[in-house]
Amino acid sequence: MTNRSTTTAPNGNGHDSGAGHGSGSAHGSGAEPPHGADPGPAHPRAGWVVRRLRLTSLRIRMIAVCAVVALAAAVSSSGIAYWLNRDAVLKRTQDTALADFRNQLDRTVTALPLEPSCQDLQVAANVVATTGLRYDVAMTSPSCTVASLRSHYTAADVPDALRRQVEQPCMHCTTSPGQYHLFWQRVNLDGVPYLIGGTKVLPSGPTAYMFKSLDDEQRDLDSLAWSLGIATLLALVGAALLAQAAAATVLKPVARLAEAARRLGEGNLDTRLDVTGQDELAELSRTFNHTAAALEAQVDELSAREHASRRFVADMSHELRTPLTAMTAVTDILEDEADMLDPMIEPAVRLVVSETRRLTELVENLMEVTRFDAGTAKLVVDEVDIADLITSTIDARAWLDAVELDAPRGLVARLDPRRIDVVLANLIGNALKHGGSPVRVRAREDSDAHGDWLVVEVADGGPGIPEDVLPHVFDRFFKADASRRRSEGSGLGLSIAMENARIHGGTITAANAADGVGAVFTLRLPKNPPTKDGITQ
Amino acid sequence: MNRVSHLLLIEDDDAIRTGLELALTRQGHRVSVAASGEDGLKLFKEQRPDLIVLDVMLPGIDGFEVCRRIRRTDQLPIILLTARSDDIDVVVGLESGADDYVVKPVQPRVLDARIRAVLRRGERESSDSAAFGDLVIDRNAMTVTKSGAELQLTPTELRLLLELSRRPGQALSRQQLLRLVWEHDYLGDSRLVDACVQRLRAKVEDVPSAPTLIRTVRGVGYRLDAPA
Question: Based on the number of CB atoms within 10 Å of its own CB, is A245 exposed (0-12), middle (13-18) or buried (19 or more)?
């Protein structure tokens, strides 16, 4: 008999360290705690999906990282817990069983005769099996082999390695070398885990084996493994949710920032972010707000200066108008009387008259320009037959002989007749001045994806416009030829014509004729302009 | 028209007043001048001119107010001198009862043409009369009565009604009416027509906001209908 249990079995002497350590709790998911509800403005619905898709990669990356961290933590802690538990449970069970077996053998086998018969052995095995802790017992002696009642196994089922170990005296067992020891091994018999312990009772005595079923323990460990698996899964889900929340707390401010930057870029310089907290994103928001404020201040200053200078021009024109009105009132008298004046004085009077008219035209054009700049120019739209309009424009300026008109009757458009009269007078007058007569004016309809258009082409027979001048013909005070400064009008005519076309939602383009003769100005007007300023129903 | 017309010019700026007085006198008118709205109203009551040329921007009571006060009792023609052709002045001035407007700086020839056109509107030309429901237009006496009561119409309103009544049931465009009534030689301001129609409706219609006589023809202009 031995009082020692060493082992040949795998997984023999487990260290009895604290089992049940951190059983599957998902600590350290790696996610920041949420910063609290984000007070940011709701996303405009448009573009939301796009932004979400764009941010998805970052979101997925955060979730993936959190999930991996959570998985590693949960799996390692669950694994350690499982193995420690398993060792503790098995060790306790087998220690108890083996100690009991040893005690039973002590009590029973010492009562056997020196040369026990098979019957004696059978009785002893039965006694050990029935009084012991629910295990089966098998005994062998040189003469016979017995097993306890209802035993499923006999000594033949004992693995060879264990049998050899048991049959030999233990040479390296330090306490009492040469003695026999109780050896054990865990095996699977018919799919059920068993602890098999065996020893030679006396050097001459029978060999006894016990078969202890570990089925209950296996079931306990299985259910433990299940629990740990489920806990790991829950930890994963929790980590993913935490990561999602963390991503939201980071990505929402980022999205707000992106939205604010976009609005700023669109010219809403009063865009500001609500800053809460002290984190890096709050710092970024503060920087954004400072930048936007500085930008707004600069733009405000610039526009204030521009506004002041425009205001000056507008005020100046108004101030000039009062003396001009008085002067204009008497120019007719002076002109009528000029013929009767002293030949020395007459040219002076005519000069005053003509320059007063020029000045008047210039001031009127200047005021018109400031009105466009200030956005106070208004449309007074009416249904107008374009042929009538062109005819009256030409007629009023005595250009009937110099203009070839090709306009169908009944071409009606909604427009401000007096503004279009200004446009036509400018275009035709310009053509007469630079191209000479005849000026060809052609009106027609045109339709495209943007609606119905009224197109008026004014073509002259002159030298055309140099290519480098073409882009500038609508610029204010632009003069194609610096030497021809006189009698060119105010230098605002085409610019005002363009503004008048624009206020109708139309445009004017300048080009040279395809056949190389003359310039062509094309006025395009929508047949139904935006009526926001129209006062006629 | 050979008779010398008597104009009252109300303008606060000395230079403009003097210049216009010179020019209009030279065009053959007799001109009285006033430098403020108050003086203008006083002169108007004393001298009963044929027509008033009225600056909008006046110290004290402004041109609109002068216009409204005159319109309470009298229907003589009023031409406004305004600063800009497209601002609110024109609309307010026409709503105050002005017949026409000119924009500063104005050429005396243009102002004279407008004056003569407005004065011509009071001239009688035919001798028939027409009835539209309870509205009777006597072209001989140049009077309009509604249910027997005589209506006080300005010459412009009367001319507009006459032109419309000459073509009952036929739509006249704003441009046509501008030529017929205002004698604008080319495209004039259609707001003149709209404002005058509003004023005329206020006088001849039973319910001015739901006109049964002077109908708006969408996209065309206006039409005078005999009530059904």
Answer: middle
Q: Which of residues 343-382 of A touch B (CB under 8 A)?
A: 360, 363-364, 367, 371, 376-378, 380, 382
Tell me the ipTM for this assembly.
Answer: 0.76
Nearest to A332 among B108, B185, B186 (CB): B108
First to last CA, chain A: 121
**How confident is the model at residue A479, as a pLDDT?**
65
| Max intra-chain CA distance, chain B | 56
A423 close to B (CB below 8 A): no
Distance from CA of A462 to the nearest CA of B (A): 29
Q: Residue B198 corresponds to which tokens in the numbers above?
A: 């509003």
The verdict on B25 and B114 lying in the same domain is yes
CB A199 within 8 A of CB A166: yes
Domain CATH for B173: 1.10.10.10
> A with B: how many residue pairs have Cβ under 8 Å apart?
100
With respect to residue B195, please indicate whether it lies within any of the assigned structural domains.
Answer: yes
pLDDT digits (tens, 9 = 90+) for B121-155: 877 666 677 888 888 888 877 888 888 888 888 88
All residues of chain B having their beta carbon less than 8 Å from the beta carbon of residue A382 are: 174-175, 190
Tell me which residue range forms the domain holding A322.
286-372
When CB atoms are compared, the residue of B23, B104, B185 closest to A321 is B104
Residue A203, SS3 per DSSP: coil
Cβ of residue B110 closer than 8 Å to a chain A Cβ: no
Residue A484, Cβ density class (10 Å: 0-12 exposed, 13-18 middle, ≥19 buried) = exposed
- Number of domains into which chain B is organized: 2
C-beta of residue B128 within 8 angstroms of C-beta of residue B136:
no
What average pLDDT does the segment A451-474 reach? 86
Q: What is the per-residue pLDDT for A6?
A: 39
By DSSP bridging, strand B51-55 and strand B30-34 are unpaired
